[in-house]
Amino acid sequence: MSNLVEIRDLHFSYGDRPILQNLSMDFPRGKLIAVMGGSGSGKTTVLRLIGGQIKPQRGTVAVNGEVVSQLDTEGLYRLRRKMGMLFQFGALFTDLTVFENVAFPLREHTELPEELIRDLVLMRLNAVGLRNAADLKPNEISGGMARRVALARAVALDPALVMYDEPFAGLDPISMGVTANLIRNLNDALGSTSILVSHDVNETFLIADYVYFLSAGRIVASGTPDEMRRSTDPYVKQFVNAEPDGPVPFHYPGKSLAEDLGLGGKR
Ligand SMILES: Nc1ncnc2c1ncn2[C@@H]1O[C@H](COP(=O)(O)OP(=O)(O)OP(=O)(O)O)[C@@H](O)[C@H]1O
């Protein structure tokens, strides 16, 4: 099967509030696929459904041919072992060294001997350029470096699937570029499949093979970054050009300003 992850006709609500509707997405093996969209459009929810933290009301998420919502606890554990996750802001354990942070998933999920853990951690740290920072604590390195440590930790177990939730959030432009390149390089070097949730157009378009645009829980556009740059779709144009108003309105819906000021006019 060419897709590592397949989402079909997915519906998800929190209570009676629909969050995702009619979603179908493909995540082909070896590719780096981006999921973009404004705040609250449902991007993180997609990742949580793939990781099996929540279950859809309708439709399926299949990872490597297995329907995630049908797995028992043991099946889910086995599946998650093959997934690496970089959470929003990629928080590190502050009382552990850089080395111990990257070693953490290896110690949690494997019975590998200490020498092998050491070699694996140093290889991962080398890949993100921080082998010589192994003995430092998170508060002794910069925010950009901390994000790179979190990347090394996310791929420590050599995952088939790596999910990145807003990996560029809060980084300076140089660190953003470094992080983007690392995400691409790690994907290609490990032969994994990556899902990148982000609203940073520049970095994402630089490294993604394919992009899905979500708005209010639906796919409104998809294609390669080049196709998206040339798109005439008003939503994509607003997003790509960072226009403050468009299909996604600047104003929270309701009364017009004129009405509120008692002028009787329409907005
Ligand atoms: N546990 C929850 N209970 C109820 N509603 C939730 C819960 N988690 C998220 N939501 C709502 O679901 C919607 C989608 O959230 P989600 O986190 O997937 O958005 P997002 O696209 O990742 O946004 P952001 O970029 O701001 O993280 C939001 O409106 C959010 O308020």
UniProtKB/TrEMBL annotation:
Coiled-coil intervals in this record?
none
GO terms assigned for molecular function: ATP binding; ATP hydrolysis activity
Domain ABC transporter, first and last residues per copy = 5-241
Q: Cite the InterPro entries for this sequence.
A: AAA+_ATPase (IPR003593), ABC_transporter-like_ATP-bd (IPR003439), ABC_transporter-like_CS (IPR017871), P-loop_NTPase (IPR027417)
Q: Which UniProt keywords apply?
A: ATP-binding, Cell membrane, Membrane, Nucleotide-binding, Transport
Q: Pfam families in the record, alphabetically? A: ABC_tran
Name of the molecule in the record: ATP-binding cassette domain-containing protein
